[in-house]
Write a sequence for this structure.
């Protein structure tokens, strides 16, 4: 298991847990970021920039600081 901010483009995994506050967890759940969801990294911004991820058919941009609080089990 690793954190989402450690994944490289084209890597996939399943969200295991969100280690964030209640408000941010609710916002992320509304965007589809829930435990059990499959997530794929599409691209990573340079110089520690944001990450573009895909959950289902939805593409999202996440700050690295937010991605660091999402635990992911890598897909085999």
């Amino acid at each position: 298991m690793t954190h989402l901010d450690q994944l490289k483009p084209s890597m996939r995994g399943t969200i295991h847990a969100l280690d964030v506050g209640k408000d941010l967890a609710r916002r992320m759940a509304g965007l589809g970021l829930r435990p059990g969801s499959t997530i794929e990294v599409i691209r990573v911004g340079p110089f520690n920039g944001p990450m573009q991820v895909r959950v289902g058919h939805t593409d999202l941009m996440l700050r690295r600081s937010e991605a660091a609080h999402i635990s992911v089990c890598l897909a085999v």
About this structure: The helical segments are 22-30, 64-67. The first helix runs from residue 22 to 30. The mean pLDDT is 93. The chain has one domain: 2-74.
